[in-house]
Structure formats: structure tokens, C-alpha cells
Amino acid sequence: WLARENVGFPSGIRPVRSITPEIKLSPEERYVVHDNGTVSDLETGLMWKLDDSYLEKDKWISWSEAKVYVGVLNDEEFGDHTDWRLPTRKEAQSIHDPNNPVTDTYGDALYLVPVFPPGAGQTTWTKTLHRTDNTLAVRFNYFSGDYKFHKKGLRSHGARAVRTLRPEEKES
């Protein structure tokens, strides 16, 4: 599995497996758009705020400002909920749809599931932090589908609020 010409060079293997939900829902069944500016993803068990912070505030924010943004949503009981938070990297990735181009705030393409409105920022902060450097947090890019660690103090990304659906919310 390792070619002879690679002897002496560091090599690594990254096993990958796909985890697919037991029940695959159609997009019409999977996403439930609510009148209060939220959307439920019944496949992942998450509720998202439809607008990201860039669409709402028309400016980029730092990671700490993203945390404040989510805190304000909780204080205001946005969508009748007080448990909004930043998504993990995997949660942010769950709404990336490479088959659905949407226009971002600058007229460029980004790729989100169809329920989200155009005009959002291309990137979002996540709550995923670097293991050894607490000045770094992951940002997810909805154009390329990649993620990178960025300095938390940079005002260069948006925030996309999410919460976990309670069991009774998944049934309604």
C-alpha cells in the first residue's frame, strides 16, 4: 500500500466511513420552515435560524461577537427558544449542498440547502475550537465546503445560529 518511492517520507492513512441516517427523507419532508424565522431539519434533529448574522446585520463579526449574537437571540427568546448556540463544524457542514447554488451577499455563489434565503455570508463561525491553541476556532465555508481554523479575533465571518430539537419538537 505504500509505494517504494515514498520510503523516508511521512505517510499517513485516514480511514473514512460514511454514516448515513437510517431514514432518508426527501428535502420536502426533511426541512420544515416555520413562520418565526426558523427551519427544522428533521433528519439531523437541528433547528436553524433562517438568516445568518451577516444577512441580518450587514457586517462581518469576530468569534466572540458571534457568541454575543447568539446570546442576544437567547435573551430575546428568538423563535420562542432560549437555547441557541453556534454550530459544530459537522453541524455547519450538514446544510452545505454542493448541488444548490445560492447568491451570497456579494452576488457570488455559495451552496446551501434550498430553504435558506439568498444574501447570506459565505462563511460562518463554529463552536469547534483548536485543541491546543485557544485563540483559534473553525470557520466553515459554504462556497467550497471546506473548514479552517481562524483567529477568533478576526472580523471576517458570520454566525449561523442553531439549536437541538427536543424529542417532542421532532414529532410535531
Give a count of the beta strands, DSSP E runs of length 2 or more: 10
Broad structural category: alpha+beta
Strand order of the largest sheet: 1-2-3-10
Any idea what the radius of gyration is? 18 Å
Q: Regions with pLDDT < 50 over 5+ consecutive residues?
A: none
Proportion in helices: 10-25%
- Helix tally? 5
Order of secondary-structure elements: HEEEHHHEEEEEEEH
Distance between the termini: 51 Å
Fraction in beta strands: 25-35%
Question: Mind summarizing the main beta sheet?
Answer: 4 strands, antiparallel
Report on this structure.
This protein has 172 residues and is α+β, with helices and mostly antiparallel strands. It is globular, with a radius of gyration of 18 Å. A hairpin with a 4-residue loop joins strand 1 and strand 2 (38-41). The model has no long low-confidence stretch (mean pLDDT 88). The strands form 3 sheets. The chain has a 4-stranded antiparallel β-sheet with strand order 1-2-3-10. A 4-stranded mixed β-sheet has the order 8-7-6-9. Strands 4-5 form a two-stranded antiparallel ribbon. The protein is built from 5 helices and 10 strands. It has helices at residues 27-30, 53-57, 63-75, 89-93, 167-171, and strands at 31-33, 38-41, 46-49, 96-103, 109-112, 123-129, 136-141, 147-151, 158-159, 162-164.
